Amino acid sequence: MTDLLDRLRDVVGDDHVLTAADDVAAYVVDWTGVHAGAALAVVRPGSTDEVAAVVAACHEAGAPVVPQGGNTGLVAGGVPDASGSQVVLSLGRMRTVRDVDPVAGTITVDAGVVLADVQAAAERAGRLFPMSLGSEGSCTIGGNLATNAGGTAVLRYGMTRELVLGLEVVLPDGRVWDGLRGLRKDNTGYDLTQLFVGSEGTLGVITGAVLRLFPATTRHATAWVAVPGVAAAVALLGLAQERAGAHLSTFEIANRQALELVLAHLPGASDPLAEPSDWYVLVELAGTATDDGLDDSLEAILGDAVEADLAIDAAVASSPARRSALWALREGISEAQKVEGATLKQDVTLPIARLADWVDEIGPRVAAALPGVRPVTYGHVGDGNLHYNLSAPASSPASTEGRDGDADLRAAAAHLSTAIYDSVAAANGSISAEHGLGRAKAAAAASYKSEVEVDLMRAVKRALDPDGLMNPGALLPPP
Amino acid sequence: MTDLLDRLRDVVGDDHVLTAADDVAAYVVDWTGVHAGAALAVVRPGSTDEVAAVVAACHEAGAPVVPQGGNTGLVAGGVPDASGSQVVLSLGRMRTVRDVDPVAGTITVDAGVVLADVQAAAERAGRLFPMSLGSEGSCTIGGNLATNAGGTAVLRYGMTRELVLGLEVVLPDGRVWDGLRGLRKDNTGYDLTQLFVGSEGTLGVITGAVLRLFPATTRHATAWVAVPGVAAAVALLGLAQERAGAHLSTFEIANRQALELVLAHLPGASDPLAEPSDWYVLVELAGTATDDGLDDSLEAILGDAVEADLAIDAAVASSPARRSALWALREGISEAQKVEGATLKQDVTLPIARLADWVDEIGPRVAAALPGVRPVTYGHVGDGNLHYNLSAPASSPASTEGRDGDADLRAAAAHLSTAIYDSVAAANGSISAEHGLGRAKAAAAASYKSEVEVDLMRAVKRALDPDGLMNPGALLPPP
C-alpha cells in the first residue's frame, strides 16, 4: 500500500495525507465515542478533481474508501472499521460556496461547507436555507446529503432530499457525474440525485450540490409549553396545524428528564416555567416580513389548548434573546446527555397515531431490561420521530456491585436496542428516522426488511459500485 | 406466443386478455394520436397478485411489457411500439382506494385509481390531495407516479415525487416489493420509492402507493391578469411570492393565441377582460377555513402590480362559478388546441431568470423554420415550465400549394423540435419538465446528457431489469 500512499501524496500534497496516530485520531472515532476504527490514511483533497484522482487511485489499488464530512454521525457511517485498510476521504477542505442566486432560489456549494455557513450565505442573500440541526456548527452539507439529514425544520420544509435540486458526485471508479442542475422540474430519466441522497457514501462521493432557498422568515412566535403527555402533544400538533397552517415551523417534544439534564449541564439554562411537567413541546410559528399576527395566532392556539386540556402552562418568548434561550433548551439536550455519561442513542419513527401508546409501552420494557435506566426522550413530534435515548442509571455504590451505570448500559446496549427495534417494527415504524444506518444499524435494518427489498438494495449497490469499495459495510451488511 | 396468451387468460380470465383489433385500438394509440403501435395483447389484471402473475409469465416467455394507466401520455411512454410483440399491461381495473387516514395525512390507493377519484376521496376525509392536471378525469395515479407528473399545484406542493411516501411495485421477474410505508422519515437504505417514481415503467410496474394529504384549502382568491410580457409575469411572480408566501398556490401563464383557441373551441368560454393582451397569468391564493384576508391580499398584490407596470388589468373571481370559469380558460387550452388541428407538443423548463429571453429568441427561430406556425404558449411560470406548443399554420390555399397546414407541421416536426431542444439545452434547461421521455424523447434526452450520466442510468436499468423487458425503448434509447 506504500504505492497507494505515494500516489495519494502526489494528488493532494504531503500535508494532506495523514497517517500518524495523533493526526488521524480525530477522524477515526465518531461523535458517540463508541464507534472507533483505524485508517490506512486520512486524505484531504481540496477540489473535485482531487477527490476524483484520490478515488481513482484507491479503485485501482483495491482500497476501500470511507467518505467523511464533519464527523458528527452517530451510527459508524463516516468512520473506518478496525481493519486499518480503509482510506478516510475527508471533504473538510472543500468549503467554497460556489454561487447564490436569490431570484432562482438556489445556492451551489462544495460538499465540505459547514451547514451553518450554508445558512449564513443564504441569509446574506436575503433568503432562508431551512435545514437546522444541533450539530449545524460542525456538520457539513455533504454529510447532510449523504445521510438525508432531518432536524427541526422537517415539519415545514422536509428532509434534506426535499431541499436538493442537483448533485456533483465522484463515482467509485473516479469519474465525475456533473448533475449540478438547479431546475425544479426535469423529468429526463431516473432521479440519480435522489438515489445518491441518503446513500451514505456507498455509491460515490458527493462533492457539490445545488440546494433550494426559501423566503427569509424574519418573524417568529415561540413558546415552551408544558403538556400533560405525548397524546396531548399529538393533539396539540393537530390543533396548531389547523390554525397556523404553513406558518407552523417547529413542533418539538422533550420529557422532563431531558430538560433536567440541560438545566444541570448547560451554563445559564433555567426552567422557563414555575412548575415541573412530565412533558414539554417547543412550538414556533415563522413568517416573512409581511406576516403580521403570528404572536396573536400563537396566543390563541395556546389559549384553546389550555381550555382543551392539551396544555398546562406556556412561556412565550418576548424577545429574540428569550427565543434563543428557549431554543437552547431543546438544542442542548444531546450535548447535556453526553456530559451526563454513557448514552444509548435511538432515532425512531412511529406512525403518529401510535406514538403515545408506543412511549407508554416501551418504558416498562427498557426498565425491565436495565433497572434504573433513564429514557431521555425528545424529538420531532410533527414527523413522528423520537430520539428515545437511554442514559445510564445514576451510579450508586449500593446497586452496582462494583460496576458503574455506564458499564451496565454498555453491557445491556444490544439487548435494549433489540427490544426497541422489535417494538418499532411491530408498530410499522422505522428504526432510523434521520441518522441513517452506517455500520451500526445496517444488519438490524436488513433483518426487518423483506428479502425482495434487500435484494433490490444490493442490486443498486452492485450496479454502481461493483467492486464494493465505497464505504463497505455501511447501509447494507456484508453479503 | 399462443402459450403465453393461454397462460395470461388463466391468470386474468378470457375477458381481460384483448387481442381483437377493435378491442385493443384504444390501448395502442396515445392521446396525441401521433404515437400508434400494435400489441401482442392487452391484459387487464384486477389485483396486485394478478399483475405479478402476468409479469412473471411475460418474463418467462421473454415478452416485453408496456404498463399503461389512463393512456393520457404525450411521449409514447405507455403505448406499444409497432412490432406487435409487446404486451400492454393496463392497470385500469385496479381502482380501489385502500385506506384514508386523515390524522396521519395519508391515502393508500391502487395504481389504477383515476386522479380525480384520489382527490375526491381526500376531500371526503376533509383533506387535500393537491396534484391537479388537465387530464385528471382520466389519468391514473399509477401513471402520475411512473412519470413524476407535475401540473398546476407544483408551485406550492411539488411534483408527484414529493407527494408519495411509499410504493408497491411488481418487479420485472414478477416478485412484489411491498414498500407501502406511510412514514415521513425513514432513513433505512436507498430510497427505492424515489427510484421508481419517474422511471416510466422501465424498472417495474407500480401497483399501489401511499400518498401525502394536506389540510383542505377551502378558501380561494383567483384572478385572470393581463400582463405586458413574460418578464413582467416573472417579476409579478416574485412580488406575489413575497406578499402571499405559502398562500400562493397557482401562477400559470398563457399567451393570447392560447386564449383565442379556448374562446373559439370551448363552449361558453368568454374573455374575462375588455381589451386583448399578448400575455395573461392565472393567479390564485388558497387557504384553510381559518385563513381570512385572501381577497384583500390578492387585491393589494394586483394593485401594486398595476402601479409597477407588471399588470395591465385583472378580472378577480367574485364567486365559485366565476373561479371555475377562469380555471376553464387555463385547463381548456390543451383540448382546444387539439380541436384546432395538428399540434407539436413541447414541455420545457428554463431557469426562471432566462425564461423571458428564451421566449423572445425562440419565436423567430420557429417562424423561420415554418412560416405561419402558431406558438400556443402556456404553462407553469412558477416552475419555469412552459408548454411551448406549436399549432399548424392556419390553412390557406394560396400558401400551401396543395398541402394543408397540418401536413406542413408534421413534415417540419423533427426540425422544429431539434431547434427548440438545442436552445433549451444551451440555456441549461430541460427538454422534458413533466411529461417524461417515453420513446418519443428518449434519444434526444440522452444526446444532451453526459456519457457518465447515460452510463449511470443504464447501470440502474440493467440492475433492476437485466433482460430489458420492461417498457423497452422508453426513457433510455436502445443501447
Explain this structure.
The structure is a homodimer of 479-residue chains. By secondary structure, chain A is of the alpha+beta class. Chain A folds into 4 domains: 2-90, Uridine Diphospho-n-acetylenolpyruvylglucosamine Reductase, domain 2, CATH 3.30.43.10; 97-215, 2-Layer Sandwich (Uridine Diphospho-n-acetylenolpyruvylglucosamine Reductase, domain 3), CATH 3.30.465; 219-334, Alpha-Beta Plaits, CATH 3.30.70; 341-426, Alpha-Beta Plaits, CATH 3.30.70. Helix content of chain A is 38%, strand content 20%. Chain A is built from 17 helices and 19 strands. In chain A, the strands form 4 sheets. In chain A, strands 12, 13, 14, 15, 16, 17, 18 and 19 form an 8-stranded antiparallel beta sheet that branches. In chain A, helix 1 packs antiparallel against helix 3 (48-61) and helix 9 (256-265) crosses helix 12. The longest helix of chain A is centred in the last third of the chain and has 22 residues, at 405-426. The two termini of chain A are 26 Å apart. The relative contact order of chain A is 0.12. The interface between A and B is large, with 81 and 80 residues. Chains A, B: This is FAD-binding oxidoreductase. Chains A, B: InterPro entries: FAD-bd_oxidored_4_C (IPR004113), FAD-bd_PCMH (IPR016166), FAD-bd_PCMH-like_sf (IPR036318), FAD-bd_PCMH_sub1 (IPR016167), FAD-bd_PCMH_sub2 (IPR016169), FAD-linked_Oxase-like_C (IPR016164), FAD-oxidored/transferase_4 (IPR051264), Oxid_FAD_bind_N (IPR006094). Chains A, B: Pfam families: FAD-oxidase_C, FAD_binding_4. Chains A, B: Belongs to the FAD-binding oxidoreductase/transferase type 4 family.
